[in-house]
Design a protein that fits this description.
Distance between the termini: 98 Å
CATH architecture of the largest domain: Alpha Horseshoe
Strand content: under 5%
CATH class of the largest domain: Mainly Alpha
Radius of gyration: 29 Å
CATH superfamily of the largest domain: Ankyrin repeat-containing domain
Order of helices and strands: HHHHHEEHHEHEHHHHHHHHHHHHHHHHH
Strand order of the largest sheet: 1-2
Shape: elongated
CATH topology of the largest domain: Serine Threonine Protein Phosphatase 5, Tetratricopeptide repeat
Number of strands: 4
Largest sheet: 2 strands, antiparallel
Structural class: mainly alpha
Oligomer: single chain
């Protein structure tokens, strides 16, 4: 009765409160009141639609859609989702969408229900997703998020940052990234089977960066069993499921990266999916030879990953599959430049020796004039380096002791030039001076001259002093 008096009294049915919620937002729980408000001219708002999705009000959402609400209407200025930031090179996720779409929001909510598919909440959210699709929701609709810092490319000085961000345009302003619903869902895991089951779905559709769904699946646990509705006992991995739907293995993104690049160039703390790797190498072995626009082949990424994780098995697998050990990046680094950043296990030293045996030049210079020995000579101080290597095994490998003992001898056996200088006239001691005193002492023991001047007339001792490296300076105080 009170609501009838309210409506008949000429109340503004489109009024909003101080946070922007309309009458329809609050009427979701009473379908009769909601319909009465709409009969009096209440217009479904974006907030009301998202509230209906949040509260699993299927009938309310249907009423809004029947009234003409466009399911591809974007919600603007959302608060942070709190997806977290990365540590030591892990991906940093968006701290808040600038735009959101009902279908994307509903699919994320569907993933929040870990219970069985026949649970009430799961069923209702599934109905909501189906209803949005029925009324025209576009699974490839675009929306903007605030630009994020791309994940580290395993210590590569020439990070592929522009490749992960895209560029500003009239439709994508500076500081933002354009995403599509289905690609973004795949980036965070497996999209609901409802979306992948759409008839005539463009399974090879590319997003603004040229990525297909298969590219993104390869970066996010492609070996995991898909949760699709399948015959009992018929289990496909995420990768196999997309391939069964017609996904092409040979697609390349706007920056020339193929599915092997995506499979290998991933979070350094996640194992390389061996099942998917084997499938790709079996069906499309030539992908190991393709380089992206920076000249990186999958083997470059695998070698860099090996140095970081101390597991050369992926690099060895690619070499066995015909990868080109002699490939050089556009920044002038060969495989030995990349691997020389860490040689603290026998397995890594064996890979280093194998690459040199295959013809990789131990004395090749990059545009900075640096040979692989320069990369080996640069070692951060042990109190930091212990997190990742060059000493006691560190935070992520407490079960094993690591040491680069024997690495210098390996360089000597392979004919490395210890007198090499870079384009600044610096020798190995110059680049070692800011870092670990142990590495400096090793090089010093080989007879390298600590008084050698570079083009700026600086000696390694001068470099150590400028960096405040007291450990290195103490070596010469003891001598004096």
């Amino acid at each position: 009765m009170s609501s009838e008096l309210f409506l008949n009294g000429g109340a503004d049915v489109n009024a909003v409160d101080n946070v922007g919620n309309s009458c329809l937002s609050y009427a979701n729980k009473d379908i009769n009141l909601l319909k009465a408000l709409m009969e009096q001219g209440a217009t479904p708002s974006t907030r009301a639609v998202f509230a209906a999705i949040e509260q699993l009000k299927v009938d309310a959402l249907e009423a809004f859609l029947k009234a003409g609400f466009d399911p591809n209407t974007k919600r603007i200025d959302q608060p942070p989702r709190g997806l977290g930031s990365g540590l030591f090179g892990k991906r940093t996720e968006p701290q808040g969408s600038t735009e959101d779409l009902p279908i994307y929001y509903a699919c994320l909510k569907l993933k929040d229900f870990p219970g069985p598919p026949d649970s009430d909440k799961y069923k209702r959210m599934t109905e909501i997703v189906q209803m949005l699709l029925k009324y025209g929701a576009d699974p490839f609709a675009k929306f903007l998020v605030k630009a994020t810092t791309p994940y580290s490319n395993h210590g590569n000085e020439n990070k592929t940052e522009p490749f992960h961000r895209g560029t500003a345009s009239p439709s994508v302003p500076e500081g933002y990234e354009e995403r599509t619903v289905l690609h973004e869902l795949m980036r965070h895991g497996e999209p609901p089977n409802i979306l992948l089951g759409i008839k005539a779905l463009e399974i090879n559709r590319q997003d603004g960066q040229g990525r297909t769904l298969l590219h993104l699946a390869c970066q996010n646990n492609p070996d995991q069993i898909a949760t699709a509705d399948q015959e009992e006992g018929d289990q496909l991995t995420r990768f196999q499921k997309l391939v069964s739907l017609g996904a092409t293995l040979e697609a390349r993104d706007n920056f020339g990266r193929n599915i092997l690049h995506y499979l290998i160039d991933r979070d350094v703390y996640i194992e390389i999916p061996k099942l998917t790797l084997g499938h790709i190498l079996d069906k499309c072995p030539h992908l190991v030879l393709q380089s992206d626009k920076t000249g990186h082949t999958p083997l470059h990424n695998a070698v860099r990953l090996a140095a970081f994780r101390r597991h050369p098995d992926t690099a060895e697998t690619l070499l066995s599959a015909g990868a080109d050990a002699l490939a050089v990046t556009k920044s002038g680094d060969n495989m030995l430049h990349l691997l020389a950043t860490n040689l603290d296990t026998p397995e890594l030293r064996n890979l280093f020796h194998d690459l040199a045996r295959r013809g990789v030049d131990i004395n090749a210079r990059n545009p900075n004039g640096e040979t692989p020995l320069f990369a080996f000579s640069k070692r951060i101080k042990k109190m930091l380096g212990g997190l990742f290597g060059g000493g006691s095994g560190g935070l992520f490998a407490p079960q094993r002791q690591y040491s680069e003992d024997g690495a210098l001898q390996l360089f000597q056996n392979l004919g490395a030039d210890f007198s090499a200088r870079n384009v600044k006239g610096q020798g190995l001691l110059h680049v070692a001076a800011p870092g670990d005193v142990g590495r400096f002492k090793e090089l010093l023991s080989l007879g390298l001259d600590p008084m050698l001047e570079d083009d700026a007339h600086q000696t390694p001792i001068d470099v150590a002093a400028a960096c405040g490296n007291q450990d290195v300076l103490a070596l010469f105080e003891k001598r004096n």
